[in-house]
Design a protein that fits this description.
CATH superfamily of one domain: ATPase, nucleotide binding domain
Strand content: 15-25%
Largest sheet: 6 strands, mixed
Distance between the termini: 60 Å
Number of strands: 13
CATH architecture of one domain: 2-Layer Sandwich
CATH topology of one domain: Nucleotidyltransferase, domain 5
Shape: globular
Helix content: 40-55%
Strand order of the largest sheet: 1-11-10-9-12-13
Number of helices: 15
Radius of gyration: 23 Å
Oligomer: single chain
Length: about 450
């Protein structure tokens, strides 16, 4: 799990190759999806905008008032999606979303105002335009019938029309990664990369428009466009197998979607705890830890979560052992000083490898876009709560992309504020095209 300089360079080379193949519509494990967002917030965004954030069992409807690109008022309401709706009929799910949007809008007393809506739909999709998102596959706890290969925007629009009690207009669809880049750009104009590092992981970046071959709408002289990499699947085609350990193979075999989301299984919050547990279980079986005896709780898949790994990592940072002892005590383990040191070492190695892998890819993107200065907008629970991740990333990116000035910036709520800003950009683009048509 510790990479040599040669292995690190090889990962960089493989990632760049997959990025270039994806952009050119050649076989790649990276989707490199065109988001059709050709510009960033410019500080003129004003008015009332809605955002709908769907990505888990709870979703949010958000009303934002923008004044010159700044959020001056924000109202949010959360709604729960029951198991029956998550695996039932797709029409019923979208009818429920429309019902909640209606409930929120009427509750805010803005049902008679035309409201542009940015739809954060955090599932893999193919975009044919800024307002067309075709669902590729459900993930997480969703598996609704008759939605795969359908346009999520159209389904939402039809559901809103069936109600007919608001003036909501869905003008853009995006995922949370794209929203994070946009939200970051509203705070820092140098933002060129968006990164989600939480339960799952993904990244997007600003690409030169002339390099992008997948472009189904008419072009209007766009200089750049946000590309959604969908990097959780990096290596699904086997190109990363040279770094796969026996622990990774077992982690993959225990997962819901075997041989999928390969990169995510190395780096994301959903899997780092399980990777640690698998490693500790093997060391125990070999008699190298806990005198060869571990309670069943530690041997049960899913029991050691990534937040516990973060607690242990805080000990290593502080030079202590209290958190580690507390975590092990939860599993009924009484640990020796040597056990503590081994457990901390395993957490460090697995966390460090994840931070290095993320940094290798980010450094590759920085070199590719080759700007004088770039800001990387980041959101997600792993980045926020792991005590060493940000420090490692800063260190590794500096080493791997020397001469490229960058900074990491925490940009919260891209799926909410970012979606509203994308709706504002969509409206601006539409008005510009209308003016151009009048001019012609």
């Amino acid at each position: 799990m510790r990479f040599s300089a040669a292995t690190t360079r090889k990962i960089q080379s493989v990632f760049l190759s997959e990025v270039e193949n994806g952009i050119r519509q050649r076989p790649s494990s990276l989707q490199m999806e065109n988001t059709y967002i050709p510009e960033l917030p410019d500080g003129t965004e004003s008015g009332l905008f809605l955002a709908l954030d769907l990505g888990g069992t709870n979703f949010r409807v958000i009303l934002l008032e923008l004044e010159n690109g700044v959020v001056v008022k924000e109202d949010v309401k959360r709604y729960h999606i029951g198991a029956d709706l998550r695996v039932g009929c797709g029409i019923a799910l979208f009818d429920y979303l429309a019902e909640c949007v209606s409930d929120f809008v009427i509750g805010q007393g803005v049902q008679d105002i035309e409201l542009p809506l940015g739809f954060t739909f955090s599932f893999p999709m193919i975009q044919h335009s800024l307002e067309v998102g075709i669902l590729v596959t459900w993930t997480k706890t969703f598996n609704c019938q008759n939605v795969v290969n359908k346009d999520a925007v159209l389904l939402l629009r039809e559901a809103l029309e069936r109600r007919g009690d608001t003036k909501v207009n869905v003008v853009a669809v995006l995922n949370d990664t794209t929203g994070t880049l946009i939200q970051g750009a509203s705070q820092d104009r140098n933002t060129a990369i968006g990164l989600i590092l939480g339960t799952g992981s993904n990244a997007c970046y600003l690409e030169r428009a002339d390099k992008v071959q997948h472009w189904e709408t008419e072009r209007h002289g766009e200089k750049e466009v946000i590309i959604d990499i969908e990097w959780g699947a990096f290596g699904d085609n086997g190109v990363l197998d040279f770094i796969k350990t026996e622990f990774d193979r077992e982690n993959d075999a225990n997962s819901l979607l075997v041989s999928s989301f390969t990169f995510e299984k190395y780096i994301s919050g959903k899997y780092l705890g399980e990777l640690t547990r698998i490693t500790l279980a093997k060391l125990t079986k070999e008699g190298l830890l806990f005198e060869g005896h571990a309670p069943g709780a530690l041997l049960t898949p899913g029991n050691l979560t990534t937040d516990l790994v973060s607690h242990i990592e805080q000990d290593t940072l502080d030079g202590g052992s209290n958190n580690t002892r507390d975590v092990l005590a939860r599993f009924g383990v009484t640990a020796t000083e040597e056990d503590i040191a081994i457990v901390q070492y395993v957490c460090e190695i697995i966390s460090n490898r994840a931070a290095l892998l993320v940094s290798i890819c980010l450094a590759t993107l920085l070199e590719k876009i080759d700007r004088e200065e770039s800001t990387i907008a980041v959101d997600g629970s792993l980045y926020k709560h792991h005590p060493r991740f940000e420090g490692w990333m800063n260190q590794y990116i500096h080493l791997l992309a020397p001469g490229h000035k960058f900074k990491l910036m925490h940009a919260e709520d891209g799926s909410g504020k970012g979606a509203a800003l994308v709706a504002a950009i969509a409206l601006r683009l539409k008005k510009r095209l209308e003016w151009e048509a009048i001019g012609d």
